[in-house]
């Protein structure tokens, strides 16, 4: 199968591509604009596979997308390209409206035209898989309920509102035009190659430099954490086995308060960094957790997310392989083992390389 993956240079997209190239015989076409969040380093050796192709394309650019579909004739689309960080969406929502809503619309239109032109056999097997978030369901504060596939949408942030909007467009294209779509809504991911603006990598990298660990509000907010490689496996299973028109929630049953997550990271660093001189040198006798610094809370901050993943487990046989403890340990170890990846992100070299290879094309 040839899968056109949008956002394949991002955190989750690169994990999906590594999985597909290493564990299957599928072909991959990575369609990515290469924003600040993209890092082709994250693909490692998989990008040298003859089953991998790359197209630097903005999903808002319909003409360029049409050319990509014509050139590669994909059997399926897995759509991950998005602006993905809530804090950035609060500071500047425009890019979120543009990519997440308008970009999804333009991709749906191009995919629909392409799908309508397929022969009967390929038309019946084609899939458009839209990758979304549990944040579309809003805030579970004050209850012990879980998000199910029929929970009403109530997004809080510009990010989650833009993703909710894109989910609605995908459902409309399925119902109105018959495009064979699948939607997945996943909880917070963590793991290797995550850009250090999100909670877990930011805390690891700041701690290693003895910088403050910014805790929004009281740190009592709850997220349901899933290792990115478990998410990648779930996405591949949904694409191959999911029922057209269905939605599948994906989550790890790992509800944790932010403050507890940060303390766990600090404890792992105490254990795994034998000589944590930087932390001690800053006069910090409590070790890394002494760096935790309360800062102003995020406006509109959702207090709790939690996923009921029983449908994907029951119908498609997916269960996560990592516990939060095993996954977090591997993640901290990955950042310790990959100083070159971190250095190129911090220095901006990962982007300068992209500019030298692809600069000026967009
Ligand atoms: P990311 O920010 O790490 O990567 C996004 C990728 O999309 C980048 O490579 C970027 O260059 C690309 N991109 C952005 N705008 C584009 C455009 N206009 N055209 C083409 N490419 C563009 O994001 P991520 O964390 O890997 O998330 C991937 C998807 O999964 C997103 O749709 C996100 O909403 C969803 N999701 C993320 C999480 C999470 O915890 N990170 C959880 C659930 C769902
Ligand atoms: P984040 O990784 O940005 O994911 P999301 O907002 O999509 O859940 O944040 C996870 C949680 O951690 C969220 O409740 C906000 C909080 N947070 C902090 O307390 N400090 C930080 O520096 C960051 C980035 C997040």
TrEMBL record:
NCBIfam families: dTDP_gluc_dehyt (TIGR01181). InterPro entries: dTDP_Gluc_deHydtase (IPR005888), NAD(P)-bd_dom (IPR016040), NAD(P)-bd_dom_sf (IPR036291). The keyword Cell membrane does not apply. One of its GO terms (biological process) is nucleotide-sugar metabolic process. GO terms for molecular function: dTDP-glucose 4,6-dehydratase activity. Its cofactor is NAD(+). Its EC number is 4.2.1.46. This is dTDP-glucose 4,6-dehydratase. Gene3D superfamilies: NAD(P)-binding Rossmann-like Domain, UDP-galactose 4-epimerase, domain 1. SUPFAM superfamilies: NAD(P)-binding Rossmann-fold domains. It catalyses: dTDP-alpha-D-glucose = dTDP-4-dehydro-6-deoxy-alpha-D-glucose + H2O. The keyword Cell membrane does not apply. It comes from Marinobacterium aestuarii. It is an enzyme of class 4 (lyase). Residues 4-331 form the NAD(P)-binding domain. Belongs to the NAD(P)-dependent epimerase/dehydratase family. dTDP-glucose dehydratase subfamily. Keywords: Lyase, NAD.
């Amino acid at each position: 199968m040839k899968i056109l993956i949008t956002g394949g240079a991002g955190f989750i997209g690169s994990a999906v591509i590594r999985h597909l190239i290493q564990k299957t015989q599928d072909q991959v076409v990575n369609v990515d604009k290469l924003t600040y969040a993209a890092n082709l380093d994250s693909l490692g050796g998989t990008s040298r596979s003859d089953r991998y192709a790359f197209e630097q394309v903005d999903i808002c650019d319909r003409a360029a997308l049409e050319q990509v579909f014509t050139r590669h004739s994909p059997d399926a689309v897995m759509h991950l390209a998005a602006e993905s960080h809530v804090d950035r969406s609060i500071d500047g929502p425009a890019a979120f409206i543009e990519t997440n809503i308008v970009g999804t619309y333009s991709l749906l239109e191009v995919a629909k035209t392409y799908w309508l032109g397929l022969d009967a056999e390929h038309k019946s097997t084609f899939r458009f898989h839209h990758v979304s978030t549990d944040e579309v369901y809003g805030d579970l504060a004050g209850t012990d309920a879980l998000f199910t596939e029929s929970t009403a949408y109530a997004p809080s942030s510009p990010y989650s509102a833009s993703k909710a909007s894109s989910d609605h467009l995908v459902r409309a294209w399925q119902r109105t035009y018959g495009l064979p779509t699948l939607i997945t809504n996943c909880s917070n991911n963590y793991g290797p190659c995550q850009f250090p603006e999100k909670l877990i990598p930011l805390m690891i990298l700041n701690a290693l430099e003895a910088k403050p660990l910014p805790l929004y509000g009281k740190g009592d907010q709850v997220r349901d954490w899933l290792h990115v490689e478990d998410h990648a496996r779930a996405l591949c299973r949904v694409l191959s086995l999911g029922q057209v028109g269905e939605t599948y929630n994906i989550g790890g049953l790992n509800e944790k308060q932010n403050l507890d997550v940060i303390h766990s990271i600090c404890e792992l660093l105490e254990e795994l960094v034998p000589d944590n001189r930087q932390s001690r040198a800053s006069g910090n006798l409590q070790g890394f957790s002494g760096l935790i610094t309360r800062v102003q809370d995020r406006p509109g901050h959702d207090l709790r997310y939690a996923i009921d993943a029983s449908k994907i487990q029951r119908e498609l046989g997916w269960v996560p392989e990592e516990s939060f403890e095993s996954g977090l340990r591997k993640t901290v170890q990955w950042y310790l083992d990959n100083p070159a990846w971190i250095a190129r992100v911090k220095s901006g070299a990962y982007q300068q390389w992209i500019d030298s290879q692809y600069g000026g094309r967009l």
